[in-house]
Amino acid sequence: MAGSLAIRRAGAVIRGGGVIAYPTEAVWGLGCDPLDAEAVARVLAIKERPASMGLILIAAEMEQLEPWIQPVSHAVEARIAATWPGPVTWVLPARGWVPDWLHGGRGSLAVRVTAHAQSAALCRAAGFPLVSTSANRSGHPAARTGAQVRRWFGDELDLILGGATGGRERPSEIRDAISGRPIRAT
What we know:
Helix content is about 30%, strand content about 20%. With about 190 residues, the protein is an alpha/beta fold. Strands 6-3-5-4-9-10 form a 6-stranded mixed beta sheet. Strands 7-2-1-8 form a 4-stranded mixed beta sheet.
């Protein structure tokens, strides 16, 4: 895991409008400030991904996500709490102010409280949840190592935060929080 100085530096790069790569539970991710339109546009351009697909936000704890999502029933809260921190991404109704570039115009937002210690520390260092999307071009396999990230993206990134993935074989499961139905199974 990268040291606290490297994580603080990465947080500063994100707060300054940068795009970084970092390890997550299973693969390497690309991340930025979700409210920085230019940084999000860069992530989408790097991935060659349309904004209409939406993006995932990761957080260190639920409190970081509360301003972004609408309140839900106690039953839905309990369903989510049983999986966090952990590798389940939940799609929840977004608050009205959340930009379309995050939810793809659907009004719902994919969010996860990460169990990956370094990713959580990065969210804390930035001071907010982060865009977290796999480090790959759309339709291609996601990077599993920092060396792959460097080879595939080189100078397109402002920083590559060293570290190791959490060792999971597959990316996070994605589920609809209201219905509980799987959107992407693991």
